[in-house]
Structure prediction request, 378 residues.
Amino acid sequence: MKSIKRTFIAPKESFFLFGPRGTGKSTYLRDNFPNAKLIDFLDPETYRSFIGKPEILKEIVEGNSDKKIFILDEIQKIPEVLTVVHQLIETKKKVQFILTGSSSRKLKRTGVDLLGGRAELCRMHPFTAKELGTSFNLESALKFGLLPLVYEKSDPSSSLRAYLGLYIKEEVFSEGLVRNIGNFSRFLEAVSFSHASILNTSNVARESGVERKTIEGYLSILEDLLLSFTVPIFSKKAKRDLISHKKFYLFDAGVFFEMRPKGPLDAPEEIAGASLEGLVAQNLRAYLDYERKLANLYYWRTRSGLEVDFVLYGKDIFWAIEVKNSNKIRTEDLKGLQQFLLDYPTCDAYLLYRGKERLKKDNILCLPIEDFLLEFLK
Prediction:
């Protein structure tokens, strides 16, 4: 398969590169830093060498004086080595350290500081529509997602199942993050119903048969493993009574689709709608990170039920975006954006839908979803 050029541009100085497994961190670094010295903490021998003596990193750096770039892969396995990296950054000004990780949980738990701001914090996301270009297929993306590890496989559905199993086995169970893997598996099924919606932990607890306090711990694990994220309410200079709860998303549309139970009582259009909103969300997050936009992702919802799916707000951007899983635009589809424009007339409003035509309705630009993902997120 032809190599897909990633949009992410690495900083010139030392940096962290976090992202879930399978997002292509190692491939990107191998392609862009072929002469770097790689230290892989997933390698058992390397792990044993460092776990008892993290300061061995100094000896490796000094013994490889011809190397100016050192990659420390899966840094969360031995967070204590960050103290040594910190010292080396101070003394080895011409050496760049690249530290990758698929989990921030162990770093938080050990209280390790992320180098005191001396290394930029970057994130690697699944493929974006922009990166795939003409190869981007919306229907495929909604069902199988855009994880590089899955996208490149001939049987993406089986690869997704194996991927989820890998996380449960290697990242959750073997690390001792949960005591009951059965409870956690039921939690994953139950929480998938909350994808692209306001999270109700009581409902998740009831559906999975697990105590609410335990569910809150499980949610923390998902976020720390970078498998989920939340979107807060937009409340800048609010003129209406707004709700305060965050919306919940799994990090990839394919992971959601595979995780979500399906049966005769589940409406396919409901599942597809949540998958579509999640796909837009993951592309927006990647856009903000890769383009280094000084902006954040929000949503807007009033207590009376008016809603806008996404609000991008920052120094040079103010967008309001509504996503509809329909090939036609109804009058009621525009209501949330129309009311948002009354409160914030300077924003750019977009309605994304499954149709083919670009339309302008009441200062709202209505776009086919593919057009927005491929052409507007540049």
In short: The CA atoms of residues 53 and 149 lie 33 Å apart. The longest strand covers residues 307-314. The chain has a mean pLDDT of 92. Residues 129-376 form one domain.
